[in-house]
Amino acid sequence: MAFPHRPDAPELPDFSMLKRLARDQLIYLLEQQHEVDKLYKVENKPAVSSSEQLCFLVRPRIKNMRYVASLVNADKLAGRTRKYKVIFSPQKFHACEMVLEEEGVYGDVSCDEWAFSLLPLDVDLLSMELPEFFRDYFLEGDQRWINTVAQALHLLSTLYGPFPNCYGIGRCTKMSYELWRKLEEEEDGETKGRRPEIGHVFLLDRDVDFVTALCSQVVYEGLVDDTFRVKCGSVDFGPEVTSSDRSLKVLLNAEDKVFNEIRNEHFSNVFGFLSQKARNLQAQYDRRRGMDIKQMKNFVSQELKGLKQEHRLLSVHIGACESIMKKKTKQDFQELIKTEHALLEGFNIRESTSYIEEHIDRQVSPIESLRLMCLLSITENGLIPKDYRSLKTQYLQSYGPEHLLTFSNLRRAGLLTEQAPGDTLTAVESKVSKLVTDKAAGKITDAFNSLAKRSNFRAISKKLNLIPRVDGEYDLKVPRDMAYVFSGAYVPLSCRLIEQVLERRSWQGLDEVVRLLNCNELAFTDVTKEDKASSESSRLIMVVFLGGCTFSEISALRFLGREKGYRFIFLTTAVTNSARLMEAMSEVKA
Amino acid sequence: MDCYTANWNPLGDSAFYRKYELYSMDWDLKEELRDCLVAAAPYGGPIALLRNPWRKEKAASVRPVLEIYSASGLPLASLLWKSGPVVSLGWSAEEELLCVQEDGVVLVYGLHGDFRRHFSMGNEVLQNRVLDARIFHTEFGSGVAILTGAHRFTLSANVGDLKLRRMPEVPGLQSAPSCWTTLCQDRVAHILLAVGPDLYLLDHAACSAVTPPGLAPGVSSFLQMAVSFTYRHLALFTDTGYIWMGTASLKEKLCEFNCNIRAPPKQMVWCSRPRSKERAVVVAWERRLMVVGDAPESIQYKQLTIQVLLDRLVLRRLYPLAIQICEYLRLPEVQGVSRILAHWACYKVQQKDVSDEDVARAINQKLGDTPGVSYSDIAARAYGCGRTELAIKLLEYEPRSGEQVPLLLKMKRSKLALSKAIESGDTDLVFTVLLHLKNELNRGDFFMTLRNQPMALSLYRQFCKHQELETLKDLYNQDDNHQELGSFHIRASYAAEERIEGRVAALQSAADAFYKAKNEFAAKATEDQMRLLRLQRRLEDELGGHFVDLSLHDTVTTLVLGGHSKRAEQLARDFRIPDKRLWWLKLTALADLEDWEELEKFSKSKKSPIGYLPFVEICMKQHNKYEAKKYASRVGPEQKVKALLLVGDVAQAADVAIEHRNEAELTLVLSHCTGATDAATADKIQRARAQAQKK
């Protein structure tokens, strides 16, 4: 359980500095506003406050601006004058000011910026907490957050030294990276001469690997996220977990010793581990018997508090486990996982399609149905036209006609597509590729690609060996590769790419994969010739996910780190999972 | 041997002075200075002369000449004054000449007589004219104060950031004050004025009467006042020939002196020698000069900083000297050499006789990519001189595309500005340009421009989605983007419209758009939805309850649950609900109703298209094992084991699996063998397995 790191693994940088910086800036901003006497959550309702001044701390969204404007205008109607201040985090957008102006309150409101873009959720996880990034960029083509990403990278390089080796793949990655470089050049000299702390940086776009994010998660942390939804590193466990009538908010990070030991484990091991732990704990409690007064005094003053703490955590996680088991060990879940694995491996497609159809017919869950359809589409390079039409029809009948827009969104994002007529040539193409050189075949494929951007998952999977060949049972207690995060059935594509590039220290030899990922011009390597990084820092790697990363990916890379003596730091626009991705694409009646 | 002290003269009892000519003035003045407006810049800066033709006795037809000399009298510029009558001249701290006209307009010239800009001291002045004006210096910059014909004061504390401040009225002021000056206290500019025997202090809020401490009695009028350069000290000259010297705050008297001269002095100024602790006031009459001094106290001297010195050299176009000084002092490039080169470039663009290409090339050759040089600033200067083409050429050298945008906008090259903004990756900048374009172009052209810039288009679309829905529709229309137009109407059908007719109409528009987009699927689905919506409305009218906005599936389920089986069947037929879905639907609904009789009838109505395992499953979900078992017997052989396990009959499941000789089924049953009760079954399976392996 909870494998230790290799003794030579590098230390993680101290991210608490980011928190301190953000806190100080916020205090400064609020102090300018004099005394803050009460905090309210920004909701769409009138502010019940008699204060002479109102201060709003908001994301730069048009919706929030309309809310502020409506409050100001309501005050005006009531003949009330107060001061208003809007603090945008992480930055102000011109469009927001524009809305204030159009609503006629621009002159009444003063604006400020709180450049808080990196929230350390854990010792190795930084989140920008921008869940809207995914939809904004990958669906709407809105590039406004790219600057925020570049600023965040800039802040990190200012605090933790230059990044000597960078790799990336994806359009958004490339733009963000270039913008960041520009920032570095403009402020030349700030990081010059400093020793790098973070030896390698790998950036990737979420759309390079949708498949991994669409899979059901089975490592504990991911499963907790899928089941209870982790928000900003904490989770609300309801009565079914706490076995009381109250909910309990629990922070999930490395500070929680029990959680830290099980977070990366395949779920099948977790319950056994927890019960063993409970027995050990009981044994430690039991030592009290037969103690004399002095020993008892020692026990109470030194050990009891720790034991009680552990006891509390243990019962929380056992409760969570039971609740998950109730939901996930049923036949339904097994079937679901089986179907997912079949899709990943590419067999029994007809059977999987019928399964999905039944899933829709039975109205199991709109988000789950959608997820399976997308998984089918991506792994199969799009649905065949007949299935594309019938599954959509069934879906609309089950879940409502507004999802016509959802399908339009999914198509645009490349998540749910119809096989283009050109795709029937795949067979021809594969024959051709045997006859001519790889390069020529590449050109032919590119020509097809121009018709429709295809996911090419099957081919990529083969190239990168994503489906491990298993002889006998895959021992989930002693994982042998990153595939354990999906019960040994599939190595996450994103993580495999990172592994391969780190091994090669470039994209060399991965040309074919890059081409299949439709990223011909979008994969880059930027390596410093004289690498001044110490051997320790050169094994400290930051992975940047634009559009979100899942806990399964984090677990897989933590595993890779332990195997290779690396330490990974994760920087993501937000922690995501399949449901969040699907919700971002869904149209719902407001 | 010469006597060293020969040319020293006594001054008072303890001080001596001598006259010593540093240099002679080079100028060749044709007129008497008394007819001129004269202004000398602080810190030995240039001197400006404007022969004043607006004196009544002169003919107004003669255009006056504005002349600028260096401190040593070297002519720097000479130009014909073509503008209106000037009341006052003064130099700003940046060595810009401010000429205050009678109509309140202030014209700003450079030290070489180049016109820079102009601004007005307010509309009120237009009628009342300017009687008097002062240019003064504060720590923020240089200010202008005027006295209007209506005896009101207006001032601006910093002409670089012009904010006009109209001072409050002075009660009972019927004529111009006998004398006045600007003061600067606590970082705020005030005006001190004398009216008869009274002194008033004006700030932006109030007018208050003040009295200098220890002022000798009998004063009926103040003839002159003088403030020291640092605004710390004030001297007053009264009609009794009495001089009061004290702090400008009027809190303390330093000394007083009665000179017994009652004629008003021409000039009175504070002066002092470097590093001396003595301060003195020099009073000048037509033929007399008097120095009045007081007890020692330290005076702060503002030293010229090296930056200011360099600025002065640059203003005098002594670029090579300035660069040599920078190099000698080893100033960082950004503060030193590059700044001077940038100034040189700004000068260079004003040379109108050189072609755009040559100027651009010359500048680029000299500047290259020196850090700290802003090509956009130089380009802005070129544009200021009316050289738009040169400005564009220079902008090309600006590496930061974002920096190019503001000037391009100013030059009305908005489309180029848009591409540069996009290049910069700064979405805010793009948005700014978009708003410019929107105002500048007609709608059609604006949309056309967007069409070629996908990034800008999506940005604008996002804005419109929230703020300008109609524009969004126009955008799609313009692009013939029927697919998005269809989606737009679909959204409107449930977000914007409330009445059924309105919603159906929106859906109709959507369907039309989808047909145009050749998206037959979406068009058909939309037409179905129109039908469904009308039908739901009818159902609500006929049956009551809630139907509108339910999905087709939920509509049928609601009908079944409400006991309207016939209507449900009819609907299923009309909308071609596949059999499989209908069976799932009815099975679930009847089980929910716990109408087991009806369920059984339904199960026998024909052969189930979904098999009978779902019946077992759903019954078990409703905890009805009895009913579940009924259906378990009807489950086909390949799902038999699952069905038996569902109803909890492990032993029989084992038998079937053994009979099937199916390894997967055996494993499945084995996994259900828990506890002691199933031990025998588990054994049985293991035996069967062993036997199978023997064969």
Compact overview of the structure:
The complex is a heterodimer of chains A (590) and B (695). In chain A, 51% of the residues lie in helices and 10% in strands.
Jot down its keywords.
heterodimer, A: 590 residues, alpha/beta, Rossmann fold, Syntaxin Binding Protein 1, Chain A, domain 2, 4 domains, seven-stranded mixed beta sheet, three-stranded parallel beta sheet, 24 helices, 51% helix, B: 695 residues, alpha+beta, Methylamine Dehydrogenase, Chain H, four-stranded antiparallel beta sheet, 25 strands, elongated, protein transport (chain A), Sec-1-like_dom3a (chain A), Vacuolar protein sorting-associated protein 33B isoform X2 (chain A)
Structure, explained:
The complex is a heterodimer of chains A (590) and B (695). Chain A is of the alpha/beta class. Chain A folds into 4 domains: 33-113, Rossmann fold; 119-209 and 493-585, Rossmann fold; 220-328, Sec1/Munc18 (SM) protein, domain 3a (Syntaxin Binding Protein 1, Chain A, domain 2), CATH 3.90.830.10; 332-423, Serine Threonine Protein Phosphatase 5, Tetratricopeptide repeat (Alpha Horseshoe). In chain A, 51% of the residues lie in helices and 10% in strands. Chain A has helices at residues 16-32, 62-77, 94-102, 132-139, 144-160, 171-186, 210-214, 220-228, 239-242, 257-262, 267-286, 293-328, 331-345, 349-361, 366-379, 385-399, 403-413, 426-435, 438-451, 457-464, 493-504, 511-516, 551-564, 578-585, and strands spanning 53-58, 83-88, 109-113, 119-122, 125-127, 165-169, 200-205, 234-237, 248-251, 523-527, 540-546, 567-572. In chain A, helix 5 (144-160) packs across helix 6, helix 15 crosses helix 24 (578-585) and helix 18 (426-435) runs antiparallel to helix 19. Chain B is of the alpha+beta class and 695 residues long. Chain B has a domain at 31-166: Methylamine Dehydrogenase, Chain H. Chain B is 43% helix and 19% strand. In chain B, strands 3-4-5-6 form a 4-stranded antiparallel sheet, with no helix packed on it. Chain B has a 4-stranded antiparallel sheet with strand order 7-8-9-10, with no helix packed on it. Chain B is elongated, with a radius of gyration of 47 Å. At the A-B interface, helix 2, helix 3, helix 5, helix 6 and helix 14 of A face helix 10, helix 12, helix 14, helix 16 and helix 19 of B.
